[in-house]
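Suppose you are handed a protein chain with no further information: no name, no annotation, nothing but its sequence. What can you learn? This example shows the usual starting point.
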Amino acid sequence: MASSGRAGAAGTAEFASTLPLCPVLPPSSPLTNTSDLSDDDYWPPSPKRRRTVKAVSASPRPKHRREKCSRTRRVTRDHTPADSSPASLVSSSRAASRQRSLALEEPIYRCSSSRSSSTFRPPPDPGDKVDRIWWTVDDGSPGPDLVSAASVVRRLAKSYKSYFNNPQDPDDKSFEAEALPSTELEYPNNHSCETFILLVPKDPDHYNPIMCLVESLYTIIDCYLTPPQKALFGTLPTALPTEHTLPHSPPTSSVANLSGDLSNSSHNSGNTAQQNHLRTLQRAIRRRDGPLFLHTMDTINFLLRSLKYPPLPDDVFEPALPNQLLTYARESWAQPSYRGIPKRVLLRVIEETYQRIVGPNIGQLSRYSAFTSEVYGELMPSFTDKIIAQTGLHAGSLLVDLGSGVGNVLLHATLATGCSAFGVEFMAGPAALAREQLRQLRTRCRMWGLSLGNVELEEGDMLGSRRVDALLPKADVVVVNNKVFEETLNAALRPKFLDLKEGAVVISLKPFVQPNARVTERNVDDICAIFDVEERPYHSGDVSWGSSGGTYYAHRVDRVGYASIRERFENARARSVRAGRR
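A reasonable first move is to predict its three-dimensional structure. Written in structure tokens, the prediction is:
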């Protein structure tokens, strides 16, 4: 463009000397009537051209015609570029005329009120969603492939140290690190149990099996037991209301009878029902009293097993009572006020899996090239909760994660909602951890009596994946953590979004189209003009790469609204063209 502009300037004088000037145009010329000319249809007179005007001033021509043309030239000198050529003047004059006319029109924006979804519609009412079966009928036995808390500590034994001791016997070496002292915890489903080694990490940021055991125990008691059953264990060490407040009455009379049977059992002859075992457990932790901790855990596990495996009825024709932990959970969690897995249970299962699989292998996630699209960062559970709430994911939805990392978003969303999920990851390290997380999460869900939605993982390039091309047209929600994606990668992803169905939502950390952008000639035909974009904030703790908050973008496919805006824009353009011809 620069070179063509200089060439036009150099040939202006020569071009002016070879063409007849406006004052001597023949009467039949369409340019003779200056009322039909726009200001931009003239070129600036050069010095040589001025001399030519003086030379022809004596020609027999009506004076008024010459004065009218001269006045027109004097007007155009102020705004016509000095380096313009006749060819460029024609196109620039039309564009300038069109822009002046468009400037008079009311601006049109992507989020105009004429769009069908200028503000995001709220998620469907839970009653309209596909009913989700969140429990499993499978046995809870973890099998030999379980990555347990004990296996993690054994593999990293050198990074752990002893915590408990025997206050009654200073010579007792059974609680030292070399002895690997351990205990078990009964999980809600049948035949599900896990071993915990009672050591603590030398680095306080590493996995702590004692705190993990205690938190899982509190979650089971808080969310799987009736109030009479909770009384058998004591008081949870908090005065604040929990996120999952259970009803004050048991769902079935059999559960109430069972809690009474436990309080009168031979094992509890020492008035176990009135003892606060949870408080005793906390006392043992504070005092580092190993024998007291082990004895208390034995009692707690006995009570849990008694609830999981109730005694057989006296009448041989009566059916045996089912697992009371799962029975109560299925009845209480199905209530309209809950309708699904309590958040405390959800986060506990996710955290258990992450601590055992990703935590010990966190070094694999730092093997990337700096300042590239391979830089790793995670969206935390609180961010995934935002996605679920905003998009209304449910059991009939399909979630696609482009750049899924270790699979955190996929696994969280499918456990919380029962949706189907697909993720593709290019880097080998995170992709391998994602596959292992999926295997272990399935096992842990069985241990907790839960079911997981369908999840599919792929390792490879998202741009060349045939599976991505096949699933995007069916996707309800697409997640792209493109915070550090190169612009070339973001640009290459844009054409793939043309296949998304109406109403699908793309969640990203960088926008594929600016929210509420003004519609112009340059962007009216843009690939991503089908999106209605909303900018939303995220807060501290929502992402792994910083302590401060930021913004993310929700792009909803709205072709109906785009067609309305395009129609308005075409009408405005047509009016501007007609106005430019006057």
